[in-house]
Amino acid sequence: MEIQTSLGNIYSYNKQTGEIHSGSLGAQLPQWDFAPFVSFKSLPKVDSFILGLTEQCNLRCTYCCYSGKYANKRVHSTASMDYNGIDKIFAYINSFTSKRPIKIFIYGGEPLLNYDLVQYAIVEARKLWKNDVNFTVSTNGTTLTRERIDWLVANNVILAVSIDGTKPFHDRHRVDALGNGSYSKLYESLSYIKLTYPEYVKDLVLIMTLASLDKIIDIAEAWHNDDILHDMSPTMMNSLAPNFSHGVDCADYDEVKGFYTKLLDTYTEHRDWIVLKKLLEACIAYWKERPIFNPSSAVPMATCLPNNTKLYIDAKLQIGVCEMMADNYRIGNINDGIDWDRANTIVHDYYNRRINRCKDCSAIRMCNMCLTAMEHTDEQWDILCHNEQVYTRVFMYLFCEMAERGLIK
Questions:
Q1: Among residues 77, 114, 130, 337, which one has the fewest Cβ atoms lying within 10 Å of its Cβ?
Q2: 282: closest CA among 260, 258, 266?
Q3: φ, ψ for residue 381 (rounded to 5)?
Q4: Are 225 and 167 contacting, i.e. CB atoms less than 8 angstroms apart?
Q5: What residues pair up with 49 in beta bridges, in sequence order?
Q6: Beta bridge partners of 2
């Protein structure tokens, strides 16, 4: 894989070692020799548990993966955990892992629609694990009152708040069932948090979902000019999961490169636009921190199982690998524990699909393909693989271009 910067310099990626060289390396031989699949009956690294407290939500975001527009994903419902379910989950967690501290993420739907249960979970966990448990609550922010904020901050709960930009951008997609935007109430809550708990803002997680990047420059400028948001950095910037029921296009390298060059040109002129800074940092994160090594033996296939650090527990007390996996890939339940045969079958099938597909790929070290792709057909995988390779090359170009412009420390 090689790129050419705007100065005309050519850089090549050595897929064998992970190094970037000046000039062209020419064709490279196949790289990866994958170690055989090894079955497992433990998940020794898990210390985080995501609780899908409820499937209820007061919003109907246009891109929501639970909207019914995604194959094999649940839809909004009235299903919720109860107090007994929380007790069972905590007993399961206590028996499942000895790692401390335990990290619990309360997720939905919109979990604060069942605020009493959120409080119960936090209080009971503190009784059980004292200071050896950390909590994060994911919320759309619309049901945060001052009293709720005060209680959550006092109990050292991290808030992960969804915000897609300032009002015109946020309200394009994050709407209620009547199509009304949700920004005004969210902004009121963020304003209260920032003015009342300025130190807490450092731990606040702001999650931005980008349905597309077409307005990202406008979002960045508006964010920078906002009195409350201008010095609050988005913690996570997520793109939408591929949705083949709507079609997924094959990316064109020159088009994608041109778009990101425009973003970089804008950032070069506006280094204090924190949204663009965060986006570009995320694009080049792997390239900046990539490991440099020459594998001397067969390498294991990169999968989350059995090296994952988290498990997802849904409102029906079913266990999943993570919150991103489709509902038909559950690997157990709270009453019976992990179904190891089921978990091994999923990973083994994933291994078999990748063993030949990936061995020659120059993008494999930074590939975002994971177990969530198991629901896709081989033809759909072809598109996903193509797009991974395009974006990997574009982000390598971005890294080299930023380095030449003196934008990387």
A1: 130
A2: 260
A3: -60, -35
A4: no
A5: 104, 311
A6: 12
Residues 6 or more apart in contact with residue 20 via CB below 8 angstroms: 11, 12, 13, 14, 287, 396, 400
Identify the CA nearest to 325 among candidates 365, 373, 390: 373
Residues in contact with 17: Cβ distance below 8 Å, sequence separation at least 6, in sequence order: 292, 293, 294
Q: For residue range 314-358, what is the model confidence (pLDDT) as tens digits?
A: 999 999 999 988 888 899 999 999 999 999 999 999 999 998 888
| pTM score of the predicted model | 0.93
In terms of pLDDT, which residue wins out, 159 or 247?
Answer: 159
For residue 77, the tally of other CB atoms under 10 A from its CB is 14
Distance CA 282, CA 286 (A): 8
Mean pLDDT of 191-217: 95
Task: Give the C-alpha separation, 11 to 24, whole Å.
Answer: 6
Q: Which residue has the tokens 């409350």?
A: 228
Say if residues 139 and 163 touch (Cβ distance below 8 Å): no
The token duo for 308 is 């994952």
User: Residue 29's pLDDT is what?
Assistant: 66
